[in-house]
Design goal:
Elements: H1 3-19, H2 21-59, H3 80-83
Length: 91
């Protein structure tokens, strides 16, 4: 593409932008809104990730989890032994 072709392309582009001001405004507005939305969502997800990591690190190495039932996915009914277990309490 020669310099003259490039110059002509830019002139046509600016003439079209000038002729259709409202459409150009709406296009720019859409791009700005889309960009800001992506930035806000990325910031929100990054903040949630950092908060989640802080919460996990706050547990420390001396944390013990005790469950009344085996952790995991259960199908069907509880066994008689599981039904007889007393509720867990902190004493």
């Amino acid at each position: 593409m020669s310099k003259q072709d490039t110059t002509e392309s830019f002139r046509m582009a600016f003439a079209t932008l000038h002729a259709h001001k409202f459409r150009s405004f709406l296009t720019v507005l859409g791009v700005v809104i889309g960009t800001v939305t992506v930035m806000v969502i990325a910031s929100f997800i990054s903040g949630l990730d950092q908060k989640f990591k802080q919460d996990i690190e706050a547990f420390g190495t001396n944390t013990v989890f005790i469950y009344k039932f085996d952790p995991g996915i259960h199908t069907g009914r509880l066994t008689p032994e599981e039904r007889m277990r007393k509720p867990i309490s902190y004493e």
